[in-house]
UniProtKB/TrEMBL annotation:
Highest taxon of source: Bacteria
Keywords: Antibiotic resistance, Cell membrane, Membrane, Transmembrane, Transmembrane helix, Transport
Cellular location(s): Cell membrane
Transmembrane domains' residue ranges: 41-60, 72-99, 105-122, 129-148, 160-180, 192-211, 217-239, 259-282, 294-311, 323-343, 349-375, 396-413, 452-472
NCBIfam families tied to this protein: efflux_EmrB
Pfam family membership, one: MFS_1
Domain Major facilitator superfamily (MFS) profile: 6-476
Protein name as annotated: MFS transporter
Topology relative to the membrane: Multi-pass membrane protein
Primary location: membrane
Amino acid sequence: MRKWLPLVAVCLGSFMLIVDTTVVTVALPEIGTGLDASLSSLQWVMNIYTLVLAALTLSAGSVGDLLGRRKVYLLSLAVFAGSSLLCAVSPGAGVLIAARGLQGVGGAAMFVTSMALLGTTYEGKDRGVAMGVWSSVIGVAAAVGPVFGGLLTESMSWRAIFYVNIPISLVTMVLTKICFTESRQPANARVDFPGIITFALTSGALTYGLIRAGEDGWTSGLTLGLFALALLGAVLFVLAERRHPSPMLDLSLMRDASFLAIMLSTIASAWGFSSLVFTSLWLQSVVGLTPIKAGLALLPLAAATFLASTLTGKRLHEVSPRVTITAALLLVGVGCAINGLVIDGDSSWTAALPGLLVIGAGVGVGMPATASAVFASVPPQRAGMGSGAMATFRQLGQALGVAVLGLVFAHVIREDLDGKVADAASAENTLTSGRPTTLGVLHDAGAHGLTAVYLASAGLALVAATATAAFIRKRPHAAPETR
């Protein structure tokens, strides 16, 4: 039993981290009322956390490799606990936004070092089991976040969603000190500050550009300017990595078709998971469920993810990642296609259930297989780099998915309502904000928007499945040690 205590420590931290990416969604109206915050401020309460995670995940993995993964994990937990306390006592929106950004700093380091700790603590079948359980916890956390947030907000206050992180962080810190020994790169390796700065610029500008694209359109001046800044940052990052003796990312991996296919599968899986944002809107605006009930309607997906990841992590660790990752993407694609074909304006929440179960199974199969394939492609002393790359591509997939699918969702609704209602803009805003409506034409438009989202997700998943089947090696070999 003692050998699984490290897994408990990692799962506690990861559960808390992922819940905090979604728990705030339900509490935003109460936060706005309690702090007299504007809509723009509330959007930043959500977006700053995502931005910081995207900007720092790869950097945090590299720092963990150099300074020690156990040390960085403990520090990240302390930062997360302290920033959660600051969130809970925030007197205004500005302080809350700053505290959420600090949460993102702790969360980025926590996420990538937790993956690296699992990858270096367990081997063989035990690693498969650990990755399966960890992946299932991630899936459950993402689904129960809105339910958890709704229960705490309704029974106590919005501040409770942040207070609850403090005892969990303290327990996790105690377990971490007991269970883990320190692991790091050789002592002569140096922190890659140019790489950290240029990658933060690249990923931060790209993620914020995707956020603005979803709100202002892809051709707005700010959106295009941010994408240009991201491109410049990427060029500077490559130049910095080529010159540094201990680069935070081994660029030779980017020439490996197998590794790139694994990263594409991570993007596609995260993209498919982004469709749940619009499913939640549909459940609330069209089906008429409360936020808590909408969260409960998504729990079958979490259950399927938990069962699939636990079973496959334990039993399929010897199977080629080409098979498991391709099968996972096919399941995600088929599940999205099912929902894209069966949901209509008269559907209840049960119409989405078969597709959600298949998507959940696909996510559950894919997460442990992808994590294991990534760790097999890098040397053990660079486990943080591998987990950082995976986490970064997952964040990119989520940000890209929400931005692009948001445009698809809104465009289809707008086209469907054209000429059918007097105030199309107001009607569209009702559907995209999740406010319940009883108007039949809005039910049809909302359903058509959601089915378009699912069909777009299905297409990407199937393209990614083709790429993984063609390019992932049967048995990835460890990358050579970086300079």
